[in-house]
Amino acid sequence: MGVEDNVTSRSLPDFDVVNSTVGGDNKLGNGGGGSARLKKFSSKELKYFRKKMHANNSSSEEQKFQVRKLQISDKNKGFIQLLSALGDDHIISVVEDESPGKIIATGSIFMEKKFLRNCGKVGHIEDVVVDSNARGLKLGKKIIAFLTEHARLMGCYKVILDCSLENKAFYEKCGFKQKDIQMIKYFIAVLPCSSFISNWAFKLYAIPQL
Fold it and tell me: Which residues cross the membrane (predicted)?
C-alpha cells in the first residue's frame, strides 16, 4: 500500500500534505517540484478546523433563512398547511362572501393554560376585523359567537379579550362584561393625553355556560 492509499478525501482530514524540500521528485506522484511528507494535525488544530467549519455552515444557514413579513403569495407556499400544525388550540375563523369569493370578516382565538387554575384553559379572542363594506350585517357578532363556542367546546372556563372604549358596547351585546382594567407599557414615545384616552382598553371576559 503506497502513501496515496493512506490519504483519504474527507472534509476534515487527520493529515495534511506539507512540502519539506525543494527539488527532486514528488513522492506523491504530483510530477516534480518538491518532495512531500504527511503531517498529522494536533488535537488543537482539529478543534480549530471543526469550529471554523461550523461557523461557516452557521453563516450559510443564516443567509439561507431570513425572516420577513407575510405576503399574499405565501398562501401558495404552504402557509395554510403550516397553520394547521397549531391544532384546535389556535384557530383563525373567517366569513366568506361566496359570490365574489372574498373574505369579509375574520377573528382568531388561542388557548392558554393557567397553572393557578389547575391548568384550566382560557380562550383569548384577538384580531376581530370586518370589511368596511360589510358593516351592519352583524358579522362581527357571528365571529365572536363562533369563537366563544369553540372555546367552550375545547373546555375553556372563560374567554377574554381586550377592546377599545368605542367597541365596549359591541362586546357587551355579545355577552361580555368588563372586568378589571388592562395595564400596558409602550416601548415608543408617550401618546398625547387625548389619544391615550381614546385608546383606553378594557379587559372583558365571558364565562361559557357549561
Answer: 186-207
Structural domains of the chain, ranges and CATH numbers in brackets? 3-22+34-64 (no CATH), 87-206 (3.40.630.30)
Q: What pTM was estimated for this model as a whole?
A: 0.57
Identify the CA nearest to 206 among candidates 171, 167, 176, 183.
176
pLDDT per residue of the chain (210 residues) written in tens, 0 to 9:
444 444 444 455 555 545 544 444 444 445 545 555 666 778 887 788 777 777 766 666 667 777 787 788 888 888 888 888 878 889 999 999 988 889 999 999 999 999 887 889 999 999 999 999 999 999 999 999 999 999 999 999 999 999 999 999 999 999 999 998 888 888 876 555 444 333 445 566 665 554
